[in-house]
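@channel sequence for tomorrow's demo:
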Amino acid sequence: MTTSRWAWAALAAVPAIVCAAPAWAATSTSIVVTSRGETLPRSSIQLFNAETGAQVRMEEEDDDRVAALFLLDGGRYRVVVNGETVREISVSGTGSQSFTIDVPPRLAGPAATPQGLTPADERRIADAMTREDQIFAEWDEKTSLIVHAGVGELDAPTQAGTGFQRPSGGAETFAGRNADTIRMHTLGLVLFPLAYREWLISASGLYGKGDEQGEGSVPAGTGTDTGFVYGDFSLGDSAGVNIGDRGSAWTTNSEVELFNLKFKAVQAATGPVALFLFADYLRSRRQYDSEVMAEVFGETLSQARNQEVTDNLIGAGAGLQFDSGPGDGVRFGGWTSAGLFHRSSELSAWERNVCPLCGPEDADFTLRFDETDRGATWSVAAGAYLEVPLSGNVSIGLGADVAYIDEVGAVFNPSSGDQVFLDGETTRLTTTEAISSSIRVGLRARF
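structure tokens (generated this afternoon):
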């Protein structure tokens, strides 16, 4: 509808209302509110006496698309549109008056609560709207893509190893062990923020990979027995091979590969500390390979193991982050968080044993171990960062973080024949704690 049609409807309604009013109710006042050429419904308009603060009753009308009509004494009145005072009008006290008021588009919304607003209410509403404008300005400023790379390590104690050694009168232990701590390189992306009400939402992905190798030997002729323990009883009901102090050589290779996808929602705040919520998916794969070999009477005896542990963790949590800076675009801060996760762990492993000097059933055989375990786990994490601008839209940053996970999958291998023969132990899936840490450098581009 156009303004002229609304004005016409208001004038057409004046005679009947004026005739019904007492002779001393001198002013019939019609008010039309527009925004960008469109007329707002009369239900979005309220009128208050500027001196007393009392709300003035609007004359009833079935059609919400006609002008708002009031019978007023002389004086000053506040016009409120959808909860915000937009203008103060002066009424003469005689005849009729019409007012057309244009308001910003943000006020062309649903009607406010019908109760009267005090000046304090108006100030609170104005402050909230100012804060809203600040938040959207902050969103516009911080829309960014971060690319970062770094180095880190994953420490997950394991009982993965190969061969055995037993000093004279001592206990059997692994000849060589796979690494508990594996160093890795990381590469990640962060996209932020997407805006939803007063939350800043970001999405990030991280990929990491690394490996550790080891090698060694048990010298011959030193009085230390050596050999290898089977992961389970062989077909010939043997728990392993003991070749005495003839010596053995071993190698290990430990690998880690991980992928992390995270969604984070930070609550916009006026201060440096803000609450955030997150949803997290982490997939890690750790592979433990090993081999032990020995020469006995011209024959090569060996054991080769390939053992892979895969973890899938999905969960959510909350935390606090701190962000500040001395100015000129330099920022520094930190964060800490805690979360709960559902864990799914899998072991997929094989072990080949070759012993030409053993019986036919044990001369060359392979054992397989496949197992799954599920449960709940929890994690805590913390980090810090520093950001320095390179230009108006590009900055460089340095960050570090550490995370602790209460329970992840791990592999257990027997390290002595007695563990298999007497205790009934086998290669199996178990659990352990894990700590990851990293240092990274990245570039942030605003767009």
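heads up for whoever presents: The chain has a mean pLDDT of 86.
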